[in-house]
């Protein structure tokens, strides 16, 4: 006993007191345990951190890639209350007695635009060349804001000088009454060169970002950027005053929005009646679809992450080998302890039938009468006794169960040997 103890304790002693030559290669037990714990903890957390980073990136990247003019709603829409919309300007104009009429087609704009109205066209409005020519022929004054399409038709004589001009607070530096009364405003975007006789304001690098001139009795105003009219910027500097002075020059303002843009104050079907039935899809906010997509991606990533943790199937050796005979004996003892002679008899008969039926050339679905008749013919025994042995009632005592087992064994030997 003492010899065994010394053999097992000697390695521990050597590891606990390493020799001088092994000091550089041996890690103290406490330090090694701490390193293992830290490594295991990092392995458990790195998957969670990876999924979190992916989810955050999926939420932040689309916001960063979305143009500022389109984030959160319809850009420069007089019915939109988001930061990119212009609902605040429309309300202020209405308080000043200006009738703001929101239209989403060139035909509707021409039907409402007259000599007593101002036609507002923004870069959000999708105007074709033909539509631009029709708008240019209208008797209404025109206010073109931002990177509107077909500027050469809507405001002939005005030429973009530089695009991408920084948008910031600028002073008017001109004699236009609407601009001088407003003062500094948040302008930029595009700088222009105007026709002869035009007035240029809010210059950037020597070129105006706001141009006004008169053509055939109609006042035409071109502004390089429309952010000063949005809900986000309207309260800054003199943006509100400039927007009111420009857009409120007439009693009626015909505001052209993109075709098919639903009024945020309605159900999206073009009806202003709030009691009208709305579809289920119309009640779902626009951001829900993107949120659902993010959740699906997150769940898929978590499923992949957790699935990899399962790893391949590993075959392990059983700690104890149990012989088949011991299993049978143990099951028999359980039957005997519970006096389950019916279950024991059923197990014996089913096993005997499974072994006898193939030898008789019968299918597994053969009826009991067919199996009993074939066994009686092959074994040369009485049909009633064979049927009682294979499908009869359960024995009432242990002796009857032993007799049944012997009878079944004899029938099986007779069928096998015949």
From TrEMBL:
Write the record's keywords in alphabetical order, separated by commas.
Membrane, Transmembrane, Transmembrane helix
Task: Outline the segment boundaries, as ranges, of region: Disordered.
Answer: 1-32
> Could you name the domain of life of the organism this protein comes from?
Bacteria
- Write out the transmembrane intervals: 47-65
Instruction: Domain (DUF4350): give its ranges.
Output: 80-246
Its protein name is: DUF4350 domain-containing protein
| Species | Sphaerimonospora cavernae
């Amino acid at each position: 006993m003492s010899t065994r103890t010394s053999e097992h304790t000697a390695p521990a002693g050597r590891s606990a007191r390493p020799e001088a030559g092994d000091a550089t290669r041996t890690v103290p037990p406490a330090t090694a345990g701490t390193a293992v714990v830290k490594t295991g903890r990092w392995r458990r957390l790195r998957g969670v951190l990876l999924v979190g980073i992916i989810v955050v990136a999926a939420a932040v990247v689309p916001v960063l890639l979305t143009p500022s003019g389109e984030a959160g709603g319809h850009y420069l829409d007089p019915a939109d209350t988001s930061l990119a919309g212009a609902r605040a300007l429309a309300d202020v104009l209405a308080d000043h007695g200006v009738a703001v009429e929101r239209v989403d087609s060139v035909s509707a704009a021409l039907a409402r635009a007259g000599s007593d109205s101002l036609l507002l066209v923004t870069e959000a409005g999708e105007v074709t060349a033909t539509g631009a020519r029709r708008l240019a022929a209208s008797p209404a004054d025109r206010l073109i804001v931002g990177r509107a399409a077909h500027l050469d038709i809507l405001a002939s004589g005005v030429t973009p000088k530089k695009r991408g001009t920084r948008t910031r607070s600028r002073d008017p530096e001109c004699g236009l009454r609407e601009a001088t009364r407003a003062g500094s405003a948040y302008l930029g975007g595009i700088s222009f060169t105007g026709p002869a006789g035009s007035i240029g304001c809010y210059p950037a690098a020597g070129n105006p970002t706001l141009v006004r001139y008169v053509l055939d009795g109609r006042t035409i105003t071109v502004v390089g950027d429309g952010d000063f009219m949005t809900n986000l910027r309207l309260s800054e500097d003199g943006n509100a005053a400039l927007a009111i002075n420009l857009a409120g020059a007439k009693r009626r303002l015909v505001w052209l929005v993109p075709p098919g843009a639903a009024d945020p104050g309605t159900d999206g079907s073009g009806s202003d009646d709030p009691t009208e039935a709305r579809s289920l899809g119309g009640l779902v906010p626009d951001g829900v679809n993107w949120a659902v997509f993010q959740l699906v991606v997150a769940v898929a990533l978590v499923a992949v992450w957790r699935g990899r943790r399962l790893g391949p199937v590993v075959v392990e050796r059983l700690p104890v080998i149990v012989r088949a005979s011991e299993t049978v004996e143990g099951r028999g003892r359980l039957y005997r302890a519970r006096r389950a002679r019916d279950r024991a008899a059923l197990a014996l008969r089913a096993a005997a039938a499974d072994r006898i039926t193939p030898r008789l050339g019968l299918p597994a679905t053969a009826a009991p009468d067919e199996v009993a008749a074939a066994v009686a013919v092959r074994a040369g025994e009485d049909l009633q006794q064979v049927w009682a042995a294979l499908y009869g009632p359960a024995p009432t005592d242990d002796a009857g169960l032993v007799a049944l087992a012997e009878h079944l064994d004899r029938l099986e030997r007779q069928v096998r040997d015949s």
